[in-house]
User: Which sequence fits this backbone?
């Protein structure tokens, strides 16, 4: 189910009857889905901008008890999906935050920038999470692509947070490879 939803999302094909069927079947079998299937399903529906509130509530309820088992990509994808669909599920966001803080050193650049983007999009001010994302980002800032640098900067600007060490690191990296940026 999640693989089919993911494939349709990657192909940018939205088929409402299929997505409704996947949502219905997923809700019936939600306890069978592992962290990757839960996050992939949320990501796929969000990528297609197909908000099925009952499915997303079921994903949230199934995710929270096992959130510590989520890999960084699953944490990031789930946060991104909530933000993309503008769903402020505070208990799930709190759970994602606590798990992400513990694993922030394992996050790759895209996971860091996507998580930063998601919390800013939702206006979810969680200082310990933002500090962990900032610290992890600074350590690997040279590995960020231009979009990741921009999204990370945008997140702090949107939240009106002046994180001088992070903003300085982004600026230095952007200057170092300013030829990579388009207009």
Assistant:
């Amino acid at each position: 189910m999640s693989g089919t939803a993911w494939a349709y999302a990657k192909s940018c094909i939205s088929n409402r009857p299929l997505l409704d069927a996947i949502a219905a079947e997923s809700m019936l079998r939600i306890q069978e889905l592992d962290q990757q299937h839960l996050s992939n399903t949320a990501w796929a529906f969000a990528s297609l901008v197909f908000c099925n509130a009952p499915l997303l509530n079921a994903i949230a309820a199934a995710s929270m008890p096992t959130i510590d088992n989520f890999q960084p990509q699953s944490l990031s994808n789930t946060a991104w999906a909530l933000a993309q669909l503008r769903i402020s599920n505070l208990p799930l966001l709190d759970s994602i935050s606590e798990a992400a803080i513990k694993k922030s050193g394992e996050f790759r650049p895209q996971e860091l920038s996507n998580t930063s983007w998601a919390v800013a999009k939702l206006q979810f001010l969680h200082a310990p999470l933002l500090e962990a994302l900032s610290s992890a980002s600074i350590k690997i800032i040279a590995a960020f692509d231009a979009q990741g640098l921009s999204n990370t900067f945008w997140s702090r600007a949107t939240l009106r947070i002046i994180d001088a060490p992070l903003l300085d690191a982004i600026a230095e990296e952007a200057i170092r490879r300013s030829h990579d940026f388009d207009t």
Observations:
- The first helix runs from residue 2 to 10.
- The chain is about 70% helix and 0% strand.
